[in-house]
Amino acid sequence: MTAHGIAAELIRRKRDGAPLSDEAISTLVAGIVDGSVSDAQVAAFAMAVYFRGMTRAECASLTRAMTRSGSVLAWSDTNGPILDKHSTGGVGDKVSLILAPVVAACGGMVPMVSGRGLGHTGGTLDKLSSVPGYDVAPDLTRFRVAVREAGCAIVGQTADLAPADRRLYAIRDVTATVDSIPLITASILSKKLAAGEPARGGRGRGPAHLGAADRHEPGARL
């Protein structure tokens, strides 16, 4: 069976409410990264998850696969704790720009992988992209140097860091599947885990709650 055929079968299973195995989810994520799964199929998968939800196990499996879709950083040679935050953003979405340097000034190290605007919300990367000379997609070496020297760095998903989320994130934004709790969970945590962050703070419902995908009124759970 071709890669397109395998993806179509997995989408059909999720559309019909059947659970996906770890292997199936890993195969789908690999196809998202290497391009063998088309944009139309990624969109169909996102919509199937939006309506059918995911079990806690499926959500955890998707998060792991997306985390490992690129490099996973380690920061054993830093002098301070590795910290980060996530918030719901809102229209302005300005918390990260203030909080990251504050945490760095207190001795924390903040390797933050952020995102662009989704729906009506502002995007941290959109703001930073407007700053002349700011590179929101540096290579991993430059990212590490920036974090060690400044104590913090805010970048986006790249071909090396959370590449599966980079593609799925963009497609969710234009297919009305932004407010899917399993996809939100996998997107947030895969970026944080890929950046090597063992400790994080957040505003809103915690990961333990987000992992349990509610199949009813997903928008209300946000």
Structure write-up:
- There is one protein chain.
- The protein is mainly alpha-helical and 222 residues long.
- The protein has two domains: 3-67, Transferase, Pyrimidine Nucleoside Phosphorylase, Chain C (Transferase, Pyrimidine Nucleoside Phosphorylase, Chain A, domain 3, Up-down Bundle); 85-207 and 216-221, Pyrimidine Nucleoside Phosphorylase, Chain A, domain 2 (3-Layer(aba) Sandwich), CATH 3.40.1030.
- Helix content is 49%, strand content 5%.
- It has ten helices and four strands; from the N terminus they run ααααβαβααβααβα.
- It has helices at 3-15, 22-34, 39-52, 56-67, 95-105, 124-129, 140-150, 163-173, 181-194, 207-210; strands at residues 85-86, 110-113, 152-155, 201-202.
- A two-stranded parallel ribbon has the order 1-4.
- Helix 1 (3-15) crosses helix 2 (22-34) and helix 2 packs across helix 8 (163-173).
- The longest helix is centred in the N-terminal third of the chain and has 14 residues, at 39-52.
- The termini are far apart.
